[in-house]
């Protein structure tokens, strides 16, 4: 099956005074690292069985070296520079089924929030020792800028 990618270009900038309940997030200017505060949000399940959440949920996501995810997921999953590894390792919190496609936002020193990643996959729902894997947005910035003609 061919890969499909899409971007949504708005006809006008978002205005917090006009567009109630809608806020923008910045494209990353640098790589996220473990000192950044990162939050993942999603509408996924609260546990491995049951319905999707009716409430948007959020979790703090500590970032890890990609080698931790490579070690945990082994040869069955090929990870590369386009991935981020993050999440609690204690099994108490993490992305769950239905959260894929949601944002991983990190705050930087300038106080703004940046879209660092997109929830991709994990162990199911916060399995102890298994962090989650996110698509690293900065890896795809050249393609994004080209598509939006902002090179």
Short description:
10% of the residues lie in helices and 23% in strands.
General description of the model:
By secondary structure, the chain is mainly beta. The protein has two helices and seven strands, in the order E-E-E-H-E-E-E-E-H. It has a seven-stranded antiparallel sheet with strand order 2-1-5-6-7-4-3. The two termini are 29 Å apart.
Low-pLDDT stretches: none
Strand content: 15-25%
Helices, by number, come to 2
| Strand elements, count | 7
Helix content: under 10%
> What does the largest sheet look like?
7 strands, antiparallel
Net shape: globular
Structural class category: mainly beta
How do the SSEs run, as a string of H and E? EEEHEEEEH
Task: Give me some keywords for this one.
151 residues; mainly beta; 2 helices
Topology, pairings included?
Elements lengths: L36 E6 L14 E4 L2 E2 L1 H8 L9 E4 L16 E5 L5 E9 L10 E5 L4 H7 L4
Antiparallel strand pairs: 1-2, 1-5, 3-4, 4-7, 5-6, 6-7
